Amino acid sequence: MHSLEQERITEEAGLIAKSQTFADDERATKDQRAPYGRSFGHRIRSLIWLVLPWAISAVLLVVLIWDLTIRTTSKDPMQRLYSPVEREIEFETRRFYRSRGDDKSPYQGWPSDEIDQLWKNSYVRGLNTYVTAEEASLLPEKTLRVPVPGRENEFMVVLDDVIRQSWYPKRYGRGMYHPNGTLDYCQWLHYDHCLDQIRQALMCAADTSVVFFEWSKQSNASRPRVDNLHTCRSFDKIKDWAFDRDIGEYHSHRHVVPSEDGQFTIQRTTHSDHGDASECFAT
């Protein structure tokens, strides 16, 4: 009996030991696997943190490229709306004339043939300019086709200047009054229109160049010095662009009309007088 009991105890002890060995082996296996599991997860997290900044940078770069693509290629940061001349814009620093005394510009002075020609050289040629059909499609607002035979696929852009001549009605015949002394409403309206266009242009440009003051011994007072420095668009570059695209012969009563066959015809209209209510045909 004693021998059998001893064998049973020994067998149970062996089973317990064997079970413990299996448990130890399983824990050892898990312990051996655990470092590999932690190492793999750590590598994944490290990879994510390594790639994430580059991925964000790539997304931002794509957004930037897209933004630049849909924008115009204007060199002028103020020019948000497309203009066909924007590629020609250059900036320069210019000092203004005092426009009085010994510091007057060549454009000033009592009218003469020389001064008149100087003004005309600045705006008469290039007053009516054309753009291509592709450029016209990019304009923020629709314009008309050029009413010149052979140039119907070009479009018009107009520049304007008239104020100076209104100050000298006898020389230029641009007075605001009829010979009998009554107001020429249409002529007055023209000047009123031009002055307000200049006002709007000045307020739109809003030149923020600084006008400084200095003490004037002559007037014994502080006086502004208007002969200061300004950052300007190069007018010569813009003028050259306009000159190169000058329409030349232009008639405002000619109109380009598309025909049924996809071609274009130029129709001629006649001037009609609707009185002052028409605001003298201004648009």
Throw out a few tags for this protein.
44% helix; 13% strand; 283 residues; two-stranded antiparallel ribbon; 2 domains; alpha+beta; Tat pathway signal sequence; 8 strands
How is the topology of this model organized?
Blueprint: H1 2-70, E1 91-95, H2 113-123, E2 128-131, H3 133-138, E3 155-158, H4 163-166, H5 169-172, H6 185-205, E4 212-216, E5 221-225, E6 229-233, H7 235-244, E7 254-258, E8 264-268
Antiparallel strand pairs: 1-6, 2-3, 4-5, 7-8
InterPro entries: UstYa-like
Keywords: Membrane, Transmembrane, Transmembrane helix
Pathway: Mycotoxin biosynthesis
Terminal Cα separation, in Å?
A: 128 Å
Tally the beta strands. 8
The gross shape turns out to be flat
Spans of at least 5 consecutive residues with low confidence: 12-19
Provide the helix percentage.
40-55%
Summed up, the helix count is 7
Q: What is the succession of H and E elements?
A: HEHEHEHHHEEEHEE
Return the domain count.
Answer: 2
Average per-residue pLDDT, rounded, comes to 76
Radius of gyration: 41 Å
